[in-house]
Amino acid sequence: MQCLLRLPGTWLAHIAFAALMLVGREFFPIGLFGADPSKPNGPSKLAADAHEKAKIAPSSVVPPGKMTVWLQAPDEKKRLAALREVSWGSPTDPEVVAAIEALVRDAAKRKTITESGHVALGVLARCPLPEADIALGTALQAADWRARVVAASAIAQRESGGMLTKELLACWRSPMATQHYALRHAVVCALSEADDSTGIAATIDLLQQLDGQLKFEAVARLTQRTGQDLGDEGDAWETWWRQRPTGWTPMILSRADLPEDVAWKEPVPEFFGVKIYAKRVLFVVDVSSSMRSTLDGKTRILTAQEELQRAISALPEDGWFNVIFYNEQVYPWRPTLVQATADNRLTALQKIFSIDPEGATALNDAMEMAVDFPTPTITLPGYIEQVLLLTDGKPTAGRITAPEAIVANISARNILNRTRIDTLGIDSSDSPEELLRQLAQQNFGKYHRLR
User: Fold this and answer.
1) Mean pLDDT of 366-386
2) CA-to-CA distance for 436 and 390, rounded, in angstroms?
3) What's the whole-number average pLDDT of the chain?
């Protein structure tokens, strides 16, 4: 299991605040996830209210002319307050930027990065000065792998990202990248999203080392930025690169328009038409009472069961999978991912077709389990490459039910996992549909409306 759950709630919120600003998402307020579920207000209302307030730039708490002083203060709260104010724009004051760089350099030396160090990395993503690139390159060598993930995410957002190709490749080759899927994912995205051709060349060179979701992420970006549909064939990409026209430059990346269907030499499993390139996948399936509803003579649960049968039967034997069922309770079919052997696929399908829908819908609780799910590894931390969430209605049970609070909570928990979350709404509309759209959009995935 990733170590994220061991972090204090406020620490998790600061990581969310730092990383979410990297991709233009709405900021999450500091302390958002420190809410106590046992309080009468509960985390749903507190989180939703705080999330609304976070959309508005905060009033200044730093005295005029004291921004640099606060950024350099020994008091962590002062540093965080100053960074919060700076983060609402693109810092250009050389003294302010120098103070932020100092925070990053200090953070890179620490075995466990400070909260202000994480937030400072996120702020540098928006800094137009070249000094920010130097600081982010230093952070790619940080002692804490989490700092490297946020640094790589920041580099992906910068127009000067191609300047750090050498540093990104060094990070890729490090033992930390071998140990942490999220870091490999962040580096691959940063290289393939670089504004110049150096990142494209580096991504093509890496293709032979990639598989599963990482290979798809690289190929999808190469396809969009080059206009070539060469799929997962590394040799074909290398040939094209050598023969590319003189003066060729990559097209601008549009994450919203990344292809979901790319050429692949092996058959790709599908779930309701959603391609599964990942080698480690979790199906999260709503089995509440509303799944008994019928359309054209077929219940929603039967439709889901048949699609699960097709998807799981097509998984490659070197893949790993599990199924999490949920109503007002959450219960996985197995306690960890299992290899997609013929016996495991058959046993899973027997369980799937024995399900009788009942109860309410604890979507948040199911997704909390999914993004923090343990996987069987002896020497390496576990990870999930893709989560496929199927539901037919709005959340009505569980620890959090407010849609915006669920998106904030799950996205924050997933920042240092970088698991792709694809959401599928069966007969969904209005508020539930927007929840699913935002959840996918903020977690590297896509929303799919079914029927």
Assistant:
1) 81
2) 9
3) 86
d(CA 228, CA 396): 45
d(CA 408, CA 399): 13
Residue range 144-195, pLDDT digits in tens: 999 999 999 999 988 776 789 999 999 999 999 999 999 999 999 999 998 8
Which residues are bridge partners to 332 per DSSP? Answer: 324
CA atoms within 13 A on the CB side of 280: 20
Dihedral angle computed from the Cα positions of residues 401, 404, 407 and 413, in that order, rounded to the nearest 10 degrees: -80
Q: Count CB neighbours of 95 within 10 A.
A: 11
Place of tokens 């990482």: 214
Residue-wise pLDDT for 18-59, tens only, equals 544 554 443 333 333 333 333 333 333 434 444 444 444 455
Supply the pTM of this predicted model: 0.87
Beta bridge partners of 285: 325, 390
Buried b (16+ CB within 10 A) or exposed e, 305-318: bebbeebbebbeee
- The answer to whether the beta carbons of residues 186 and 155 sit under 8 Å apart is no
The β-bridge partners of 321 are 281, 338
From residue 321, how far is each of 279, 280, 310 by CA, in Å? 8, 6, 14
Q: What is the DSSP letter of 22?
A: G
